[in-house]
Write the structure tokens for this entry.
Amino acid sequence: MAAYRVIILGGGFGGLYAARAMRNAPVELKLIDRRNFHLFQPLLYQVATGSLSPGEICAPLRGILSRQRNTQVLLGEAVDIDPHARTIQLLDGGVFPYDSLIVSTGSQTSYFGKDQWRTWAPSLKSVEEATAIRHKILYAFEAAERETDPAARAAWMTFVIVGGGTTGVELAGALGEIAGRTLKNEFRDIDPKAARILMLDAAPRLLTAYPPDLATDAEESLKHLGVSFRPGVKVVDVDGAGVSIEDEKHQRERIPTKTVLWAGGVNAGTFGRVLAERTHAATDRSGRFMVKPDLTLPGFPEIFVVGDLADIPGPDGNPLPGVAQVAMQGGAYAAKSITARVKGEAHPAAHFHYSDRGDIAVIGRAAAVARIFGWHLHGLLAWLVWLFIHLMYLVQFQNRVLVFIQWGFQYLTFSRGARLITGSAVANSVNPGPTMRNLAEE
């Protein structure tokens, strides 16, 4: 009898946790990803701000799963699916059949129909984008040091972050520490503390997914770091010279800046759109699938969708957030469902139930806000909880040790050891380099 074939698309949190949960299952498992590594995305902003190097938050998928004898890791990008023949087609032409499929290909940054803004406002979804942001931030200070025109220098010293969610808050906090602490005494013609760091969001407050008291605490912590927040404004244009915004009264304002960082919304990636077309599955405005309570697609009980691609209603009726915990639990649930099917057993839980363990966002040194099992924490205690959680969920022990050491040095000295400007300094800061152009075409 042929082995039961399971394919997992994506080696992020959902896909990796699904694969690990099937380590002893009687299946032939293939994990396919276009990258050969698992990226710990919650710490990607620390790569973008020079605290960590990419290798410290990434781990090779083959190494992680090397001892799972029923698992094969393949490098490839899924571009098409025949849900009736149950086959996946890769970009290089490879075709792989499956009996069950777990789709965890994640999301991509949404520019709300203005993809040309990606050229001037990189987002934070990949290692390449993180290093491009790092380059952009550090080069801005270098260019300001050499600039003699006051207006041009002010534009280089102005940093605009679009988005007031967790990513935006963490980026802004790190930028505030870079300007106020890390670069202290390193320049002669500019004072990095004079940098203007501005956050923009159409929402009425920061961190709308958090309780209001924690959002207020976060805003106060950001103010201490020199970060200003502008609520109730939307971006209407971004180019190489600045960003244009519009408030609720439709009054427009132009902000001259050379550095715009995008921490806005997300939508389904290319494969998500293909899957929706082939299965005729219903999706929400962001392209996320309206999955059944068991995380399968209507009419296709063998296809599970987990992570950012799944629109899963929470207890309050609103979709669960696209965070790592949702993806991990969804991947593990899908794996248990498949294992139960293969063994001819009933799944212990007919419906996926998300165990909400809370939210946490770090603002800076000894400053964070957290909602943990109903408790509201802020300041040093929340920061210590953040440290523990992120170290615990790093996949490999080696990464935990390296990150712990780096954080220790940074806490004591405010030094950021990965402050590297790589590639062509001028070309990559004035115009998008090859990496950014390739990302925009994906």
Residues 431-442 have pLDDT under 50 and may be disordered. The CA atoms of residues 292 and 298 lie 6 Å apart. The chain has 13 helices and 23 strands.
